[in-house]
Amino acid sequence: MSRKSSSSSTEGVPSTTKPVLPPYEEPNSPPDKLDLDKPPLDVEQPDKNVKLKYPKSVFFIVINEFCERFNYYGMRTVLTLYMKQILDFSEDKATVLYHTFLMLCYFTPIPGAILADTYLGKFKTIAILSCIYAFGSILLAVAAIPNFLPQTGFSMTGLLIIAIGTGGIKPCVSAFGGDQFVRPQQDRQLEAFFSVFYFSINAGSLISTFITPILREDVNCFGDETCYPLAFGVPAILMIVAVIIFIAGKPLYTIKKPEGNIMGEFFKCIGHAISRRFKSKGEKHDHWLDFASDKFDKQLIEDVKRVLAVAFVFIPLPVFWALYDQQGSRWTFQATRMNGDLGGFVLKPDQMQIINPLLILLLVPLFEAVIYPCFKKSGLLTPLRRIGCGLVLCGLSFVISGFLEIALEPTYATIPADGRMQLNFINTLPCQVNVTYRVTDKNGDLSIKANEYEFVQDLEADQDIFASAFLENADCGGYLQFNGGFSTGEVRLGKGNGTKGYSILITERENELTITRLNNEEQLDKSDTGDPSVAFFVDDDTFQEYAGLNITMRQETKKKTYEYIYVLNDTAATTPEVEYIVQTEYQKTEIGTYQLFYNETPVGKLENLIQGGVYRVVIQKALNESDSYHVMTVEVTPPNSVNILWLLPQYFVVTVGEVMFSVTGLTFSYSQAPLSMKSVMQAIWLLVVAFGNLIDIIVIQFQSDMSQADEFFLFAGIMGIAVIIFTAMSWNYKYVEDEKKENEDEKKRLSTASDHKTDSSSSSSSSDEEVYAKKGEENKAFSE
Fold this sequence. Notes:
This protein is α+β, with helices and mostly antiparallel strands. The protein contains 20 helices and 20 strands.
């Protein structure tokens, strides 16, 4: 947006016509009869009725912005899952690094703006930083290729370069687009351009947020079950296209030379005032910034005061972004613990982020056309009150997410604590079995029904496990007769390691009741992608090692056939040793129902695999010595039973909060800033976002033992404190419009009073100053 300078209206005026200011008037006060807003007739005036051609150059800028936003939001959508799944970071570390990246993205616009306005100009700044940005995107995509480059180091380097690039061009692109129009003749076209420009931003983010999770999960590449190189690579290609298109438009661009950056003067004025305040002894001023009056213009000092007044109100606002930006971190991880099956379509955890921009497109027109006009006459929703409501709603969304997390806790994987373990007794027999177990500090009895299982948790690890199994009688299921006794007697099952879980099979060998423990532990954790995990036990006394045997899971859908093969080579290690038991590794699979094939022979179905579930499937040769097989499914870890659509309430509430907070905050910061300080105010607004992400980093770094639900409630509590502080700080805030109105009313009153004054000019002047010093009632932003 162009910034009208104070001297632009008198440009071209001959020196003989310039007014000579009286010595007693302030330097910036012209004579009453001279209107400097109307230049002499010999100065050519722009004609608003003159139609100029629509600048073709802006199409290059709009396409460039679409591609750049596609790259940024597409990469950002899958970033936390990449850090957890590929770089093997914990959720906490991935969250901290994600918010560090966002923080850098919102700190770097400041040097980017200074570079463009002071040294290189907008075109060169965008071109150079976009090339750097594209290189960072390519580096991230290449780093995601397994066994090619050191993934962690090069991924972090790529993200740093991307932060520099995207942040550096952020304040330049829209302003450069505005430079392509001649004002005021093309003001309407300029408004239309910004509408198209921001539509391209939303279009790029919406499309990429939907597509990149599909590229991540539904494509297999480089031997992995996921394809992050493609998920990062496609956006990187779009960024290369963005650079090429932007540079290709150079012959059509209107390129303005750098005119200097007000931010430098802003910080110099503050620094000089602080320095002189402590160095100047005996000198007094009404405001500490007035100490800079020896070096800086009075108007600049007043403008800085206005900016700092707004910035003071902004102090609690970073908390909003601390909560809001967790949509891409904590809320995405929360979505991985939920069931995304919508009946024929599976919504991926990171695709939930598309809800926010979709709701924004729907809610902004609704609020602007319906809700705000309803409250306008009553004056209830002033800008600062809107911002306050946005803070409250954002905090409320985290209360909702906290209660949702409590509902998810029963579906969590149960991981034994250090020094503890768990046992899973699996009865493969067609009749009930009674079990007695003993592990040092704990013992118990179980009655396990036919083809069922029971868990025993929180047992002391690294201690001998003893167990015995016995039947009520020799007849088991009506067709299996046990020889001799019906009991195994007490059997030593070895020792288990801490934090692990082990399966104990109850089966038969040569018509004798048998109990044994599989030495390899079970997978207790859910998959980091949210997919089901499936593994097999084969209990078959005809099994031959390394005979090319396998198990195949097959699911045929209208779109695709899913097939997973488990190669069976050798038997499993057991305690005590029992032959012909095979234990496979876990594989991540798609949800749904599968046909099972043992050596290409159909043996049954694996019904209704659900996201997040960990399943151990037992395929057992029929105990009556027939050629058939029995299939038994053990649910080691419960699936994600809570549907992902339960995230919609918190997304809706936070988006309503964003509409009231972010849209209003941008308008408020721009309208309250002096003309010369618009760019400074926008820079401060970006810093609010950066500091919000810094809050996330600090809180998450210093909390370690807190549950996820408690952490959500903690952030909601922090927001509650921020709302109280914001209310107190903004209580007596005066809007610029109200101050101007007060000053105008005061001047009118003084002018009316002067008609009735006596000839005593000195006393009159003194009384005028006293009257002018008295302000009207304060406009309380919240109280009125």
